[in-house]
Amino acid sequence: MIFLFILFASFLASGVFFVLADRLKLPTAAAERAMLGTGKQGGKLEKTIEARLAGWSVRVSRLIRIDEYRKSRMKNVLKAAGVNMAPEEYIAYACVKAGAILLGAIPCLFVLPLLCPVPVLLAVAVYFKEIKKADEQLRARRENIESELPRFVATIAQELKSSRDVLSILENFKRNAGAAFRHELDITCADMRSSSYEAALTRFEARLNSPRLSDVARGLIGVLRGDDGGMYFQMLAHDFKQLELQRLKAEAQKIPPKIRVFSFIMLMCFLLTYLAIIAFEILKALGGMF
After folding, report:
1. End-to-end C-alpha distance for the chain, whole angstroms
2. Cα-atom radius of gyration of the chain, to the nearest Å?
3. DSSP 176
4. In whole angstroms, what is the distance from residue 154 CA to residue 136 CA?
5. Burial (Cβ within 10 Å: 0-12, 13-18, ≥19) of residue 213
6. For the whole model, what pTM was predicted?
7. What is the secondary structure of 15-58 as a DSSP string?
8. Overall average pLDDT of the 18-45 stretch
9. 100, 49 Cβ separation under 8 angstroms
10. In angstroms, how far apart are the furthest CA atoms of the chain?
11. pLDDT digit string (tens) for 139-187?
C-alpha cells in the first residue's frame, strides 16, 4: 500500500511539474546545459542535474533582493573567482540546490519519519557550502598567485636595473607564470594598452584584494611616476622570501601528525607479527610436550 502511495505521489508530482514548466516557459534541458558551458568537467548525469538547478535558479533569482554594497562586493568576488553568475543567481543557486535536497524529507515522512532530520541537516550544510564556494575559490586563487609573488618581485628588481618599461616587464614574466597569474597579467597588460597604466595597476590589485599584491602594485605605480624602485623591490623581495619560508615551514609542520598515524599502524603490525610468532612457538612447544 505504501509503495502504491509513493508511486501515485511520484506520478502526480511529475505531472504537476510538466504542467507548471509549460505554463512558466521553463527552458529545456538542452538550453540549460548550454548555460553551463562545454568546458565544465563532470558526467552526463551531473551536468543534467546542474543544468536543471541552474535553470531554476534563474527563475528564483528574480525574487531575491540584495543591497547595493553587498551586491557590489559579491560581484567583485564572483568575477575574481571566475564564476560567471550574477549575485542574485549565485544566491538562488545555493537556495535551489539546498531546497532540492530538502525535498527528500517528504518521502521520509511517510516511509521512515526518524530519517527526516538527515535531509534537513544535509540541505543546510549544502547551502553554506555553496554560498561560500566563491570565497573559497578566490582564496585558493589568491594563495596560488601569492606563491609566485616572491619570484615576480625578484624579477622586477633585476629588470629595473636595465629597463623601466613596466608593461614589458609584465609581458616578459607572464611567459613563465602559472595559469592563474598569467591570466591576471594578460588582463592587466591588455588594460594597460587600452587605458592609463596607473589605473590598470590599481584595478589589478583591486581584483584579488591581496595585501602583498597591493605592495607590488604600489611599487610599480611609483616606478611609473619616476621613483627609483630598485631598492624598494629588493627589500620587498627579501620580505616576501621570508614570508614564503614561513609558509613552507607551516606546511611542513602539518606533515608529522599525518605520518604519525601510519607510523603507529606500522608499529602495531610489527608487534602483531612478533606476537604471532611467539604464540606459534609456544603452541608448538606445548604440542611437543603432550
Report:
1. 67
2. 29
3. S
4. 28
5. buried
6. 0.61
7. HHHHHHHHHHTPPPHHHHHHHH-SS--S-HHHHHHHHHHHHHHH
8. 52
9. no
10. 99
11. 888 888 888 888 899 889 888 888 888 888 898 888 888 888 888 889 8
